[in-house]
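Homework help board

Subject: predicted structure for assignment chain

Our instructor gave us this sequence and asked us to write out the predicted structure in token form, then describe one feature. I got the tokens but I'm not sure how to describe them. Can anyone check?
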Amino acid sequence: MTIKLKKNDNVTVLAGKEKGKSGKIIRVDREKNRVYIEKVNMIKRHIKPRSAQEPGGIIDKEAPVNISNVALYCSKCKKAVRFSVSTNDKGKKTRLCKKCGSEV
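My token output:
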């Protein structure tokens, strides 16, 4: 399965405990079909102190979300949409919203 979402895309979560939340993609894990979304699916991790400059403690970090549970967010439609990929005259690929036809 090809992953058509990229880093810095705005997406909305469609299923799971974080349903309805939206954010920007921080990282895409292509091998496991998962994405990390900014401020979504936060977990707590206990960090061991490494040195005087790096103290230990409990930090919040993003956990991955399955790629099938997210959809690209269209700023014109103001909702999560499906999109198509088309090429223009110069050969550049663009992603178009299937509902309104605007570039995502």
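Reply (TA_rk): Your tokens look well-formed. For the description, you could write something like this. The chain has one domain: 10-97. That's the kind of observation they're looking for.
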